[in-house]
Amino acid sequence: MATKRSVGTLKEADLKGKSVFVSVDLSVPLDDNSNITDDTRIRAAVPTIKYLMVNGSRVLLCSHLGRRVTPKFSLKILVPRLSELLGVEVCALCSSMRSSFMNNSCELHLLG
């Protein structure tokens, strides 16, 4: 059985050239115009994401926003802020197929 490891124990040799799938809580509060009112959860994820990127991995983020499957809660809303904080282009890859376990899930692919 593999030993459980945290991101901090992974070194460049473990990460370089690898794709890393990260489940992250990016469910942030939005106002009535779909503007982020508190980006604390996004900012909390940035150090981990940057660590993975700096050590040569391709990062895929999976998250959800809100509790209902509606365009209002699309993760595309978070792309500009996440791109700004990371200093790289972020691309949202959302599936049009939804299932009960996927809820409003979506992957965010970091470019750069």
Count of DSSP E strands?
4
Q: What is the overall number of helices?
A: 3
Within CATH, the superfamily carries the name Phosphoglycerate kinase, N-terminal domain
In CATH terms, what is the fold-level topology? Rossmann fold
Shape: elongated
User: Any guess at the CATH architecture?
Assistant: 3-Layer(aba) Sandwich
Number of domains: 1
Strand share of the residues? 15-25%
| Largest sheet, spatial ordering of strands | 1-2-4-3
CATH class: Alpha Beta
Question: How large is the radius of gyration?
Answer: 15 Å
Determine the fraction of residues in helical runs and give it as a percent range.
Answer: 10-25%
Low-confidence stretches: 96-106
Order of helices and strands: HEHEHEE
Mean pLDDT across residues: 80
Q: Profile the largest sheet.
A: 4 strands, mixed
Q: Quote the distance from N terminus to C terminus.
A: 34 Å
Structural class: alpha+beta
Protein name: Phosphoglycerate kinase
Cofactor: Mg(2+)
Family: Belongs to the phosphoglycerate kinase family.
Keywords: ATP-binding, Kinase, Magnesium, Nucleotide-binding, Transferase
